[in-house]
Amino acid sequence: HLRQVNLRLKGQAGQEVLVEACSEANLITTKPLRRLPKSILKSETIESIFKEADDVLECDPKLYSYIKKICFTNLDSSFSTPEPSPEVIEIVSKALYYNKRFWVEYQSMNINYQKTYFVNPLALVYCSNVPYLICTLFDGDKAIYLALHRMSNPRIAPVEAHTPPCFNLDDYTKSGVFKIDAHDSPITIKAILSGSAAAYFKERKDSSIKLNSIHNNQFELEVEVCDSLDIRQILRGFGDQIQILEPDYLRDEIHKASLHD
Q1: For all residues of the chain together, what is the average pLDDT?
Q2: Is the pTM for the entire model greater than 0.85?
Q3: Bridge partner residues of 12 (DSSP)
Q4: What pLDDT is attached to residue 4?
Q5: Rounded to whole angstroms, how far apart are CA atoms 102 and 54?
Q6: Residue 82 CB partners (closer than 8 Å, separation 6+)
Q7: Is residue 88 within 8 Å of 154, Cβ to Cβ?
Q8: Do 148 and 119 contact (CB within 8 A), yes or no?
Q9: For residues 182 and 227, what is the distance between their CA atoms, to the nearest angstrom?
Q10: What's the CA angle centered on 89, arms 116 and 80, to 5 degrees?
Q11: Residues 151 and 106 sit within 8 Å (Cβ to Cβ)
Q12: At what angle do helices 229-237 and 248-260 cross, to 10 degrees?
């Protein structure tokens, strides 16, 4: 029997998040509370749910420890976000819940082959609704983040995970690793696309995306979005199949990043 509870957490930017989790930690989903009707948020019913969640946590230290390993940053996402496989979500959740290490194949951006990592999981961060695992690799103590949607074939290992003495989740998320320049209003991105970059935007159902065929299987893109980390990573991931035209600061940033990839 899986006991489901609803928990209210604060995101890094102060957003409230409704988290649905079960005591065996093989499923976790999130819903920003600001998207729910205010009448529901202020109701006695939902407050009683949060009270029930608190009671559950008091009786389940392992679940409480698991929830403390989850953090939310920017909850907005202008593009449809990539989804990890159910297998990856299950293994990562269990690794965090049971405090175990695991093996996984990982496909980095701009690399056309997978690497095998022995992962020591520390925390799960949702940035723009995209889940990233904060972890160390093999016997190292340097915390890095891996995108769950780039993982495949995860396998739990009978080895206890450990937290490096210097690691603190709040300090890590505030260090700038997930930080971008803030823009109060949406930005308009213009670019020239080819190959998989063109195919990606053709498949998107967003009405804000405008694609015009030009020549030699190239397309001109114009899209209005809110600036976010996942958008920048998506753009970087296409390598030389995308040429950013505007805005200038984003074009320069993507170009500089490509020199280090």
Answers
A1: 75
A2: no
A3: none
A4: 39
A5: 30
A6: 130, 147, 149
A7: yes
A8: no
A9: 7
A10: 100
A11: yes
A12: 60
